[in-house]
């Protein structure tokens, strides 16, 4: 696969996105520590981060660390509007924009030198446009590969711009801590640290087989490549959605939740996912559970069904099995976020009919009836009994930096 010899890939990442929108819209919050979300921190301004407040931290802990912080409720409509405006700037910059989340994207500016200038000039103009048109700070990293462009933006935060020239790639990358490598969370970092592996340079000195013995085959291959800045992925546009998912941040409250309370969260998430799949005319086969723990480490578990489905009951049954299998891990490490995704999507919405047919109510008919009532009277018109009186929580599509 072709990889450009020029540093022409931009990673544009809004700074503390939700908190920055709040500070933009309320001048009284500017320069003050701001926390978005009460039960769990969805975003923190850099003034709050200076006190140790971090995304996904429990609200009570965040307030202990920074008692003078202003806590504001999330305003998802405002964040969506701001994201749309920022992406207009991205698309005005280059036709090759790959959205990563609501607040970040890769942008390929290769071939635009004659009409738009150098990658650094383009990136500087993009930052100025986002500031002038949307009123938000944004950081841009520039490199030859997507991986290194993202690392560059992390190093340049907040509100910065950093170019990694091709001749300086490894000199820039190798002194960085291992956590800068994609996929290395707290747990993997601890495994590496116990063997004296602290920096990316330390990783680069190891063979692929040695890394595989330390962190597993797939992760070992990934770390071997990234520590040498081997990343052949191109910036792609118009990527078809490969999964439908939802997740909920629990904060430290997740540590004290009973099995019934966790199950209620599972039911709510699966109900949202299955409803969206049916609305989009999609079915899927693989159900994936995503967990985040107190140490900010993560884990995933998945199960592939023998047929594609969008049935709430079928997906829920699989989701419950995955949670039950992960129960010892949850008890040991504490749960702060739970999410599910259904993948291997069939865009035609094909679903296997099962035999034998009986006179009992077909789950598909139940789903169709529920969907019909909700379309006519609103999403809250019908709610599962187990969810009545419970806090529905805030679904978090992405937790920004």
From TrEMBL:
What does the Swiss-Prot or TrEMBL cofactor note state?
A: Binds 2 magnesium ions per subunit.
GO terms under biological process: DNA repair; DNA-templated DNA replication; error-prone translesion synthesis; SOS response
Q: Which Pfam families match?
A: IMS, IMS_C, IMS_HHH
Span of domain UmuC: 9-185
Q: What is its EC number?
A: 2.7.7.7
**Main site of residence?**
cytoplasm
| Cofactor(s), by name | Mg(2+)
Keyword DNA repair found: yes
PROSITE patterns to which the protein is assigned, alphabetical: UMUC (PS50173)
Q: Which parts of the sequence bind Mg(2+)?
A: 13, 103
The superkingdom of the source organism is Bacteria
Catalytic residues, chain numbering: 104
Indicate the quaternary assembly.
Monomer.
**Main function:** Poorly processive, error-prone DNA polymerase involved in untargeted mutagenesis. Copies undamaged DNA at stalled replication forks, which arise in vivo from mismatched or misaligned primer ends. These misaligned primers can be extended by PolIV. Exhibits no 3'-5' exonuclease (proofreading) activity. May be involved in translesional synthesis, in conjunction with the beta clamp from PolIII.
Which family, according to the similarity comment? Belongs to the DNA polymerase type-Y family.
Q: What is this protein called?
A: DNA polymerase IV
Which source organism?
Mycobacterium cookii
């Amino acid at each position: 696969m072709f990889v450009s010899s020029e540093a022409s890939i931009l990673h544009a990442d809004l700074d503390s996105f939700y908190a920055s929108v709040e500070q933009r819209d309320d001048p009284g919050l500017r320069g003050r520590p701001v926390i978005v979300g009460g039960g769990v921190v969805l975003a923190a301004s850099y003034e709050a981060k200076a006190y140790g407040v971090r995304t996904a931290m429990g609200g009570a802990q965040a307030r202990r660390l920074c008692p003078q912080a202003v806590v504001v409720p999330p305003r998802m409509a405002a964040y969506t509007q701001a994201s749309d405006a920022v992406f207009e700037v991205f698309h005005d910059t280059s036709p090759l924009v790959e959205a990563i989340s609501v607040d970040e994207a890769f942008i390929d500016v290769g071939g635009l030198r004659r009409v738009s200038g150098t990658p650094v000039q383009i990136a500087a103009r993009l930052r100025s446009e986002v500031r002038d048109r949307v009123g938000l700070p944004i950081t841009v990293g520039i490199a030859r590969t997507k991986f290194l462009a993202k690392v560059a933006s992390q190093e340049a935060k907040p509100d910065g711009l950093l170019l990694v020239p091709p001749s300086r790639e490894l000199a820039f990358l190798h002194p960085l801590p291992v956590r800068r490598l994609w996929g290395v969370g707290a747990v993997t970092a601890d495994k590496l640290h116990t063997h004296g592996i602290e920096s990316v340079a330390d990783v680069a000195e190891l063979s692929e087989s040695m890394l595989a013995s330390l962190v597993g085959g797939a992760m070992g291959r990934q770390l071997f490549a990234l520590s040498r800045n081997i990343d052949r992925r191109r910036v792609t546009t118009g990527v078809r959605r490969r999964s439908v998912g939802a997740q909920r941040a629990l904060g430290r409250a997740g540590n004290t939740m009973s099995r019934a309370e966790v199950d209620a969260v599972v039911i709510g998430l699966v109900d949202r996912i299955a409803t969206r799949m049916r609305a989009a005319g999609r079915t899927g086969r693989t159900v994936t559970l995503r967990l985040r723990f107190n140490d900010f480490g993560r884990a995933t578990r998945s199960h592939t069904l023998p047929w594609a489905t969008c049935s709430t009951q079928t997906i829920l049954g699989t989701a419950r099995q995955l949670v039950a299998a992960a129960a010892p891990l949850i008890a040991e490490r504490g749960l702060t976020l739970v999410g599910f995704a259904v993948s291997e999507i069939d865009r035609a919405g094909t679903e296997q009919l099962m035999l034998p047919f009986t006179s009992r109510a077909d789950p598909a008919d139940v789903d169709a009836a529920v969907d019909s009532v909700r379309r006519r009277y609103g999403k809250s018109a019908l709610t599962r009994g187990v969810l009545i009186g419970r806090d529905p929580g805030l679904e978090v599509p992405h937790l920004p930096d």
